[in-house]
Amino acid sequence: MPPATPTVTYRHLSVPKHDGDEAVSEDAAAVRTDPWPLRAAVADGATESAFAARWATVLVRGMVDQAVTPEALAAALPDWQAQWRDAVAARAQDAPWYVQAKAADGAFATLLALELSREGRWRAVTVGDGGLFQLRDDRVRVAWPTADPEAFTNRPALLPSRPSRPVSEPEPTTGAWRPHDVFLLATDAVAAWLLRTDPLRARDWTADTFRTAVQAARAEGTLRADDATVLILEIEETSDGEAA
Amino acid sequence: MPYSAEISREHPTAFLFLLDQSASMQDAFGGAEQTGDAAPSKARVLADTVNDLLQNLVLRCAKEEGVRDYFHVGVIGYGERVQRLIEPADGQGPGTGLVPISHLADRPRRMEERVQEVSDGDGGTTEQRVKRPIWFDPQAKNGTPMCQALDLAAQSVRRWIDEHPRSFPPVVVNVTDGEATDGDPLRYAQQLREFATDDGEVLLFNVHLSESEATPVELPSSSDELPTDAEYAETLFQMTSRLPFSMRSAAEQEGYSVTLDTRGFVFNADPSALVTFLEIGTRPSNLR
Fold first, then answer.
1. Cβ contact B121–A162 (<8 Å)
2. CATH code for A6-243?
3. Any idea where the domains of chain A sit in the sequence?
4. What confidence tens digit (pLDDT) does each residue in A5-31 have?
5. Which of A48, A98, A105, A154 is the mutation pick for testing B, counting most B CBs within 10 A?
6. pTM, entire model
């Protein structure tokens, strides 16, 4: 009997740092549900750099087309850097001196990616302080790479868009999944907030309830003023008729 | 807690630099490796350093869509005259002498191009042409009217605070190579430091540029650390504010050991001590 094919649904929830008319998030997320293996990625562009949202987008789009391993990430990085360089070159050319200087410095971003194999394994890779959670039944099975909400600093490891800048080493991990598991991929502010409160609460979030929760947590000071992004992946029962 | 206001476009902070332009600034730094005509004057090193600093402040606020006005900046020169060296944009009137940093970014006096060596990511280096904004040039003439400069600074920050009462308070950095020639600067310094926002009193830091080969005294906590043969070292120390929390952190990151009494003061600074201090003294609480 061929292996049953699970169905995965996902929600991409995001509230920018300045939640208003001029809101622009420098986080990015991407998911590839077809073909298997399924891949998902979130990236957080560093506020201090320019063209950081573009860099975060290049990273997540590139990562969901790569094997989720440190080696594949390192091998693809030069191509992603070239994509960013080409995208930015035209915009920087006639820009004021400070935009040119920021473009020359390059952008920086954290990156967290997850890959689910059809056979029930998963692997992940991260650079920086994004947070991966695996939820099963009513408990948190995995909180990675840290379960300590105080471990989040203002100086995470970063991927540079310029080849002249040093690259932080990607960290890998692996695990097993089964139907009804939920995975969360969160950028740093949300990851720290979930660890400080309860990661299980994310299972019920919709775009509206997430925004309301973010606004309340920012107001009471439990969520740092930063772009807030989470990808929620839910693995349903297998859709294969014969397996049922 | 004072000195913790979040800096945003709505609540910017201000940096005001007071630059000694007296005749003695024509001399080279004490202990300079090069001597004679080859050694750059203190005035030249100071102009280069402040142009670089203003460039870095702009870049800290720059995004692809433009420069965010987290900072307002002013420069007052004192020597032959006491004058504001950065003028507000046309039609804005004299105002406070502190201009939003986006105005500064868009109005350098000129752009210079220089060639910089950058890493090619492959173990080698490659040359890159970079444009460098210049806002002002070295000047060195006459005496050291520091009291008048402090008085003009007080007028600037007083008006600025009226417009920004909740902001992280203005940071005033005075760079000099000698004694005031127009009175007792301590009195003017105290007057300046009495102005305050809701977040704290105006901060006044002092950098004294070296004339001798003596080792710099950086960020002293007590006047005992100063040389005993220079009376104005004690005066400058007394004029200087203690470092607030965010700048103590910045100083620790630069390798200094600090206490609650650490003052934002450098005596006998060489060019590198000047650059390091300006980096520390322009690190207010986190940008929003």
1. yes
2. 3.60.40.10
3. 6-243
4. 788 999 999 999 875 545 678 999 999
5. A98
6. 0.84
